[in-house]
Amino acid sequence: TDRKLPKEAFSISATDEAANAVEEQEDEDECELYQGQLCQHTCTNIWGSYRCGCHQGYILQPDGHSCAPGNGGCSQQCTAVIGRAHCSCFPGFSLVTDGRTCEDVDECVTNTHRCRPSDRCVNTVGSFVCRPQVTCPAGYQLKNSICQDIDECMMRAHDCGEGYVCENIAGSFLCKSKHKCISGFTQDSHGNCVDINECSSLSVPCSPGLNCINTVGSYSCQQKIITCNRGYRASPDGHECVDMDECQMGTHRCGRGQICHNTPGSFRCDCQTGYQFDALRKTCNDVNECWRYPGRVCAQTCENTPGSYYCSCTAGFSLAADGKNCEGKHDLFLFFLFPRLTENNLEA
Fold first, then answer.
1. CA distance 175 to 203
2. Is 174 part of a structural domain of the chain?
3. Any one cellular component term from GO for this entry (predicted)?
4. Domain assignment of residue 321, yes or no
């Protein structure tokens, strides 16, 4: 039959007296005796009875032995614990008081996010995102993390007076006079008529080979004259700019003790040999070799000259071929070299 056995089951030893039956009673393992008959999934023996359970993903039915698939009434995750449904939530959600429903956790409000101080926390379902702080310039306002233009005309946040019409532009507005300007003029933000520079406002104001010249209220096209930057001049055919050699033309500004070197579009001044650059005054100063190298450039007398020096000798000596050393007359030279020998010769 389908009727389940009662959960009270005991056996009494036949050799014992009835008076002592309560003390000698033994529990029967119904799960083993009626294997596969009591519970649909799992059977657990307990003292004097048994308990049915279900596999994970199944729920024990009210009859106590049947199992049915389901989430146990949980809105997200369900785990069977001793035959009963235990509800839990996914990360980013929390279980409400009914023990079954999960609701989103606002990490931005609970301060459980991991955004940097320079970022802005934005809550999402089950999580959050970190977005950079956005500061909008004047004339814009932040909407959905985007700086959008403020229509001052529609919001009546302009200061256009009577006789003017407000026109919204990106980040600001214009006050246009109700009076029209003549051709070649336009209205500024104050409603005044100002000249239009057609040379910059028109994409191709003049034909190739012609220069655009703006005039008040109009413009004109003239034959193109090549204009070169400083350091360059027009080529003989007038089609290109070529470098000017300031050193050759004598238009450089190199001073005394400096050598001019031409460079593309300019020139460079370097110090001549015997001169040293003064970074403070930006000049080349003469180097006094006689003071800087005493006794090393000349054998006897040293005289400084602009950019160089001159060696000379004292009386009785003449300058050697190297321009630095001094040499005397032959007999005096021997006298200074061999004084004792000379004295002996004189005595003899």
1. 27
2. no
3. extracellular region
4. yes
Residues 295 and 236 in one domain: no
Are 47 and 27 within 8 A, CB to CB? yes
Mind listing the pLDDT tens digit for each residue in 64-121? 888 877 777 788 888 877 767 788 999 999 999 999 899 999 999 999 999 998 888 9
Alpha-carbon span 63 to 71, nearest angstrom: 18
Indicate if 240 and 310 belong to the same structural domain.
no
**Mind listing the pLDDT tens digit for each residue in 11-65?**
444 444 444 444 556 788 889 888 889 998 889 888 888 989 887 667 778 888 8
- Tell whether 202 is covered by a domain: no
Supply the CATH number for residue 45's domain: 2.10.25.10
Helix axes of 330-337 and 339-347: crossing angle, nearest 10 degrees: 110
Q: Which two tokens stand for residue 126?
A: 């089950």
The distance of Cα 167 from the centroid of its chain, to the nearest Å, equals 37
CA dihedral 222, 225, 227, 228 (to 10 degrees): 160
Q: What contacts 272, CB < 8 A, 6 or more positions away?
A: 257, 258, 259, 284, 307
Tell me if 106 is assigned to some domain: no
Output the DSSP codes for 36-57: TTS-SSEEEEETTEEEEE--TT
Which residues form the domain of 317? 291-347
DSSP state of 109: H
The 8-class DSSP code of residue 335 comes to H
Q: Give yes or no: residues 308 and 243 share one domain.
A: no
Could you give the CA distance from residue 254 to residue 230 in angstroms, rounded to a whole number? 17
Check: CB of residue 317 under 8 Å from CB of residue 328: yes
**Domain closes at, from 286, 306, 321:** 286
- How many domains does the chain fold into? 3
Final residue of a structural domain among 286, 302, 332: 286
271 and 232 in one domain?
yes
d(CA 5, CA 9): 9
- Domain check: are 20 and 63 in the same one? yes
| CB neighbours of residue 66 within 10 Å | 15
CA distance to 37, 52, 64, per residue, from 32 (Å): 10, 13, 18
Tell me which of 267 and 280 has the higher pLDDT. 267
